[in-house]
Design goal:
Elements lengths: L2 H17 L9 E5 L5 E3 L15 E3 L5 E3 L7 H11 L8 E4 L3 H6 L14 H6 L5 E2 L7 H16 L6 E4 L3 E5 L1
Parallel strand pairs: 6-7
Antiparallel strand pairs: 1-2, 1-5, 2-3, 3-4, 5-8, 7-8
Helix pairs in contact: 2-5
């Protein structure tokens, strides 16, 4: 995928999430890891329903901004996910984080190790395990570390994960 295609795809997916009510206002962010190891990510305080391809932040492989508006404060989280997840799936290219109201509500109950038990075969095949990560303020580097540790721990058990639920903040998924 070219950088131009990645920019277009981020905007298409952002609009789809917004139109379906999975994100609202300026909540949520999307990133794509490019062939050169750099990233595109939605800017801070961007509404995913109204993104413009030319208005995405561009970062190098070390997550240092090289162009565009100020990158989402969650870039540390996205970069940590790419580093950890590519150990188990080298093709990991996209991270999406939303503040989905219904998913966040599930984290308000006493937390278990996972968001929901694997209740149906379809759930197991399509979603898999979704560990709940304790609350950290948005953008806190400790959240990135906690997610990376969860990816590592599950992967070492032979059960790679593609999602976590950030307690009181929402789901983060990658593939």
């Amino acid at each position: 995928m070219t950088e131009t295609q990645a920019r277009d795809e981020i905007c298409r997916v952002g609009k789809s999430l917004f139109d379906r009510g999975y994100v609202h206002a300026t909540a949520g962010n999307i990133s794509v890891r490019l062939d050169d190891g750099g990233f595109l990510i939605t800017p801070t305080d961007a509404c995913l329903g109204f993104l413009e391809p030319t208005q995405l932040a561009r970062l190098d492989a070390d997550a240092r901004q090289t162009s565009g508006p100020v990158a989402s404060k969650t870039i540390a989280l996205h970069a940590a996910i790419y580093r950890a997840a590519t150990t188990f799936d080298a093709q990991t290219r996209c991270v999406i984080h939303t503040h989905s109201t219904h998913c966040v509500a599930l984290t308000l109950q006493p937390a278990g190790a996972e968001l929901l038990p694997p209740i149906t075969p379809y759930f197991v095949m399509k979603v898999g395990h979704v560990p709940v990560i304790p609350y950290f303020r948005p953008g806190d580097p400790a959240a990135a570390l906690a997610v990376a540790q969860a990816i590592q721990a599950w992967g070492e058990q032979g059960t790679p994960i593609r999602a976590v639920m950030l307690s009181r903040l929402g789901p983060t998924v990658w593939h």
